[in-house]
Write a structure and sequence with these properties.
Chain lengths: ~625, ~350
């Protein structure tokens, strides 16, 4: 008996040991140590004489202009909380609560930020509003005295991010408002409250928990803003960290230590906010308690003036959301000259921004015509762009998969009753990156692994040459762990405990039980998380900007580059067109992924069987006709 | 067939089962009955191997299986939620256990179809996803899956509790028929006393980790061994001092110091008392009309007695009507103050 018990235990023990080693390696090696290194590096600055001066950076911070970046970020975050909530609540109410004509189309427009975000979105806005943007050009023609650079700095960042950051409202607030018990609305109406009173007194209070979470998330997004301030020129914390990380002591005083200090300040803000948030979420008892929920019915705005104003407001927002998308799609099929002149040429449509190459002829200053071969090229025929797409594709897919596999293994361990305490430790270890701003993790990686003295990665410099790709994958993976954990853990809760008992009773081993019973149940969720991870990483900008190096030029970096090098001396003539085409490509990829996740992925076995049956009948009919 | 000898189960400091002794005979339909948290499911899980007892032995067909792994016990289980694998078809669900036992494919197919036929599942249903079946069909799949590997025993953990009342009664009958047809030893867990009484050959009544009584449905119902059992099974009247002393005055041999109980249907209204029976005067307080029978609340000697009369159209009593309630002292079950007693 004992001998057989030993035999059974041994492989299990080895697997367990390997697991413990792996997660310890991941946590200490790729979360704790690099970030601790950043923290300590603040106090390791040396003065001109080469003496260690622990508080030099702090003195520098208090005396110099560094505080400006923190202040700017805070200012942006606070402003965003107001504007994003106003716009976010508006679009949800206009599509879900009030009876507005064309709500379906409005909703589609408001949801466009879900299929393009970050660099793609910011460059999209720039395509309209920048000094050479379509709208600015049109305005300049009408009002020659206007400042063409009106769309830059704080206002531009605030405007862009206000509309870019409503995706979460569209997801969560919409969900919350749909969960409202309509009977409570009817009860209030019955007691004589008008729709606006009902909204204010009955509906909004039930949305407060969701709004609070959204507010905290928006605040953090504002603090950690990266692509918009970088591209539109606003001195907030993140762009400054990236700039300092690439600077050297020859140019300015201890740039690395300053970057470290800024990222730690950012981390402190994030930690405080998230602590407040989770404390609040734990208390959350605002939720509706009615047993039978009646579906919300849209409220008609009775006052005709209010009704017209609401409709106007809805469609103005719709135009703001849709114009960049429509313009980008249209101009992605236009020639470079049409794009350069920002004039739609309805007679000439082209696919050159997507596929193929064309030569470009230009007049030199000496009056000669020169030809650059293949200088006009599409997204899929331009080496740099294609390289960025390929790299981002591979790195994102790898990282998205790693994050899922790690989390599934961890959840399987955590959900075993025997591992209650160690499971909690594991969970917190995997949630750790959630507390830290992405930039801190990436900056820490960049500085910590830029050395060949790190023994546990085989004394290899991971920031050097091609190794940086490995570093990017690690950073992608680690930053995606908390999200993956929250989502996949939720799906583990849906596994009936008796299923495991049933499989065991029928003789299945733990591994077989996992592979054949549990995994198929959670697989749709895991694939959804994989797809969402991939979607976010594929056009990810913040991290790749921190790791900027010729071996780590991701897709977002390529898109950013396409804003800068437009058509100089015949190079990259159609960079703008390619940028538009890139955005269209991204929208297609994201749209497809969201369709797969929420459309195909949520089908259960009965639905899949029904579809298979329909397909079989269809082919039967088809082959029957042929015969 | 199955012997539980002095089983003790502990969860930390909490003793879930105290010295449980049960002997289930071959082919018997044996029910563990009790309120939630009484230890019935724990006992079942000890037999199936999900729980290892702190002491005591589980013996099946003279083989000690106390420490045998779950999968080697040859015991089928039908779970409360059925625990059908939602990502597999009905066929795959039933086939699962055979696959693990490495039964050749042709034989697997034959056995799956055979058992499916026995539990009335069509070939069309075998191809379906579990979620496409009704509750009753799902239960049949769960039974087929548990039986296909040819277990010596089948354990069912409240398999009817997830169904609506009508279906529950219908499936109860099907279940009993299936058990008879297969002739398999069955251990059944439920908190529903009616289910236990209609289905079982014998019942073990659990309370707080102890077994209060083991017996046939009739023994448990009419000769409840403890006060808990007589209260838990069926509806009952506790006779208070007023009635007891009135009955004693009429010559009944009752002990006023004991807790005396009588079933509702053992009381009769306005009939001629036979020798030894006691007749007491009362007033009808109210009545509940059930169709099949009528339940009267009758005030007798300062206490309200519940009485059930068959709705035969002859005896209908109105509120406030004076009636006579007839009690046979032989029908009274008496217990000591500690709840123990002797069934009479």
């Amino acid at each position: 008996m004992n001998a057989s018990l030993d035999k059974k235990l041994r492989p299990e023990l080895i697997i367990r040991l390997v697991g413990v080693c792996f997660f310890a390696y991941l946590f200490f090696g790729f979360m704790l140590l690099p970030c601790l290194n950043t923290l300590t590096s603040i106090f390791n600055t040396k003065n001109a004489a080469g003496e260690r001066d622990a508080f030099a950076v702090i003195r520098f911070f208090l005396a110099g202009t560094m505080g400006k970046f923190v202040w700017n970020s805070l200012k942006l975050a606070v402003a965003l909380v107001i504007t994003v909530n106003v716009v976010g609540i508006s679009i949800v109410l206009l599509t879900e609560y009030f009876d507005i004509k064309g709500a379906g189309i409005l909703r589609m427009g408001y949801m466009t930020t879900m299929i393009y975000s970050g660099v793609a979105l910011v460059t999209g806005y720039m395509f309209l509003y920048a000094s050479d943007g379509i709208l600015t050009t049109a305005l300049k023609n009408a009002f020659p005295h206007m400042n063409p650079n009106w769309f830059s700095g704080y206002n531009a960042v605030l405007f862009t991010m206000t509309f870019a950051c409503t995706s979460n409202h569209m997801l969560f607030l919409r969900n919350a408002i749909r969960g409202i018990d309509y009977n409570t609305v009817e009860a209030a109406r019955n007691m004589g409250a008008n729709p606006f009173k009902v909204l204010w007194k009955v509906v909004l209070p039930t949305l407060i928990p969701t709004l609070f979470s959204l507010t905290v998330m928006t605040f953090i997004t504002g603090l950690c803003a990266m692509s918009a301030p970088t591209l539109l020129g606003y001195d907030s914390i993140n762009p400054e960290i990236v700039r300092l990380a690439g600077s050297s002591t020859a140019d300015e005083a201890f740039p690395q230590a300053r970057a470290a200090l800024l990222s730690i300040i950012l981390a402190m803000f994030t930690i405080i906010l998230l602590t407040v948030l989770s404390a609040y979420e734990r208390k959350g008892h605002y939720l509706s308690v009615s047993k039978t929920k009646a579906k919300l019915q849209k409220q008609k705005i009775v006052n005709p003036v209010a009704n017209i104003i609401a409709h106007l407001y809805a469609y103005v927002l719709f135009i703001i959301y849709m114009t960049p998308v429509v313009m980008i799609v249209i101009f992605s099929f236009q020639t470079y000259s049409a794009i350069r002149q920002k004039k739609l040429d309805l007679s000439q449509w082209t696919l050159i921004n997507f596929f193929g190459k064309e030569d470009y002829q230009y007049l030199t200053s000496r009056g000669q015509y020169k030809t650059r071969e293949g200088s006009i090229s599409g997204v899929f025929s331009n080496d740099a762009t294609l390289g960025g797409i390929k790299l981002s594709f591979v790195l994102s897919a790898l990282a998205a998969a790693f994050a899922c596999v790690i989390v599934v293994v961890a959840c399987n361990y955590m959900f075993n009753k025997k591992h209650k305490k160690s499971g909690i430790v594991l969970e917190y270890a995997l949630l750790f990156p959630w507390l830290l701003p992405t930039i801190l993790i990436c900056y820490s990686y960049r500085t910590y692994f830029n050395s060949d003295a790190i023994w546990y990665v085989g004394n290899k410099n991971l920031y050097y040459a091609q190794n940086v790709r490995m570093l990017i994958v690690m950073a992608y993976t680690v930053t995606k762990l908390p999200f993956s954990l929250r989502m996949i853990k939720a799906s583990f809760y849906s596994i009936d405990e008796e299923l495991e008992d049933a499989a065991k009773n029928l003789g299945a081993s733990p591994i077989r039980t996992f592979l054949q019973v549990k995994l198929p149940i959670i697989l749709p969720s895991v694939l959804a998380v994989f797809a969402l991870n991939f979607n976010a990483l594929f056009t990810e900008y913040d991290m790749s900007a921190t790791f900027a190096s010729s071996y780590g030029t991701s897709y977002a970096m390529v898109i950013q580059a396409m804003c800068a090098e437009e058509g100089l001396y015949g190079y990259n003539v159609n960079a703008s067109g390619r940028r538009c085409a890139s955005t269209v490509f991204i929208m297609l990829v994201s749209g497809l992924i969201l369709y797969l996740v929420y459309g195909v992925g949520s089908r259960d076995l009965s639905e899949r069987l029904a579809i298979r049956e329909r397909r079989r009948k269809f082919f039967q009919k088809l082959s029957g006709k042929k015969e | 067939m199955i012997k539980l000898n002095n089983i003790v189960v502990k969860f930390g400091d909490f003793v879930a089962l105290h010295d449980i002794n049960v002997h289930v005979k071959e082919g018997e339909f044996f029910t563990f009955l009790g309120p939630s948290g009484c230890g019935k499911t724990t006992t079942l899980r000890t037999i199936t191997g999900f729980i290892e007892p702190a002491s005591g032995t589980v013996v099946v067909k003279d083989r000690d299986i106390t420490h045998v792994p779950i999968e080697d016990r040859n015991i089928g289980i039908v779970f409360q939620s059925y625990a059908l694998f939602p990502t597999m078809t009905v066929y795959d669900n039933i086939e699962f256990g055979l696959k693990i036992k490495k039964v050749p494919k042709a034989e697997r197919d034959q056995r799956v179809r055979e058992i499916a036929r026995k539990v009335d599942l069509s070939d069309e249903q075998l191809k379906k996803a579990v979620s496409q079946l009704s509750g009753g069909q799902q239960q049949r799949v769960a039974i087929a899956r548990a039986l296909v590997t040819g277990p010596a025993i089948i354990c069912m953990d409240e398999p009817l509790s997830n169904l609506d009342a009508k279906l529950r009664v219908q499936l109860r009958n099907e279940l009993k028929k299936m058990q008879k047809d297969f002739g398999i030893t069955t251990i059944y867990v439920t908190h529903d006393q009616e289910e236990a009484l209609t289905l079982s050959d014998r019942i073990a009544v659990f309370n707080k980790g102890y077994i209060e009584q083991i017996g046939t449905p009739n023994e448990v119902y009419n000769f409840s061994k403890t006060e808990f059992v007589c209260n838990f099974i069926g509806d009952i009247n506790r006779l208070e001092d007023g009635i007891v002393s009135a009955m004693v005055k009429d010559g009944a041999k009752l002990d006023a110091n004991k807790h005396n109980y009588i079933r509702l249907e053992r009381l009769h209204v306005n009939v001629e008392p036979r020798p030894g029976q006691v007749s007491l005067e009362g007033t009808v307080e109210s009545r509940e009309y059930y169709g099949l029978y009528i339940k009267y609340y009758i005030s007798v000697a300062g206490q309200t007695l519940k009485v059930i009369e068959k709705n035969d159209g002859v005896r209908i009593y109105e509120e406030g009507q004076k009636v006579r309630v007839i009690i046979d002292p032989k029908d009274v079950m008496a217990y000591d103050a500690d709840g123990k007693g002797e069934a009479q």
